[in-house]
Amino acid sequence: MIAVATLTPGYYLTLAAALFTIGAVGLLVRRNTLVMFMCIELMLNAANLTFVAFAKALNDISGQVIVFFTLGVAAAEVAVGLAIIVAIFRRRQDVTADDLHVLEG
Amino acid sequence: MQALIFYVCAVAVITGALGVVLARNPVHSALFLLMTLVSVAVLFVQLDAGLVAAIQVVVYASAIVVLFVFVITLLGVDKHESFDEPSLFQRPVAIVLGVLVFAQVIFLAGHYWATGAHSTRGKLSGPRTGNVETLARSLFTDFVWAFEITAVLLVIAVVGGVALARRSGQRPGPNELKAREVKGSGS
Predict the structure, then answer these.
(1) Which of residues 147-186 of B touch A (CB under 8 A)?
(2) How many beta-carbon pairs under 8 angstroms link A with B?
(3) Distance, in angstroms, between A102 CA and closest chain B CA?
């Protein structure tokens, strides 16, 4: 039986750290802006998991309330970001990050 | 049992995250993202955060992933994304940075510096109040100012999204010119 009896917050924090790292490396490695956005979502989720794990560890509700605000910010960010991607695509036919190094109209 | 659930969900979370990064097709990335988000929601339930888990499924797993898939269908799947880096150093440097970040966070998490008073804003759930009521009470008393600012932020995001997606009043790009030509020749 591999299952340990007690789950300390360290398990959740380690998982969140791994999730954050994968998101950060993915953001740096990938070139498709949509996939880069998904990697940002992964990093936000890792932060949410950390907040909820600490809320449980400290028996404090404020960690979960902050996850609420993170969700709101993530929703706003995705809406605006995808609108920007669509606007870029309309103009340039391509949404690869390497092609967007020129800041012109 | 708790530990078993944790390990299964942890494997699903990591698999989904790796799938997001490694999948070549953006639609597959979106589906792997969905897998990660739902597994994280299960972990939220395990951590006594039922309402947050429900909102994670409703907002993230449905609304945001559907928005991603919708934009992918709108733009078309970018099949010619090459995995060859234009810069020779970028990928190794990214991986080294990732390992460094992971080591740092593990170092901090291993020491588990959760000091300070417990339950300053109220316990997770009282004897007779559930998670929803406790959370709502804290949200509308202690955090009401942040709540209002979030409302303003969402309004700004909606207005900004509409302004960005609006067609009129902007110089037409090459795509639109092409589309107009096609439309003009057809009529």
Answers:
(1) 147, 150, 153-154, 156-158, 160-161, 164-165, 171, 173-176
(2) 255
(3) 16
Residue type at A36 in one-letter notation? M
E strands along B79-128, which residues? none
B35-78, pLDDT tens digit by residue? 999 999 999 999 888 899 999 999 888 889 999 999 888 887 66
Residue B27: count of CB within 10 angstroms of its CB? 14
Q: State pTM to two decimals.
A: 0.83
Q: What is the maximum alpha-carbon separation in chain B?
A: 73
ipTM for this prediction: 0.88
CB A15 within 8 A of CB B10: yes
CB neighbour class for A51 (10 Å; exposed up to 12, middle 13-18, buried from 19): buried
- The residue type at B34: L
Quick one: which of B158, B167, B68 has its CA closest to A80?
B158
| A contact residues 6-35, partner B, Cβ 8 Å cutoff | 7-15, 17-26, 28-32, 34-35
Distance of alpha carbon B161 from alpha carbon B164, whole angstroms: 5
Structure tokens at B61: 């797993």
Tokens at A28, concatenated: 């740096």
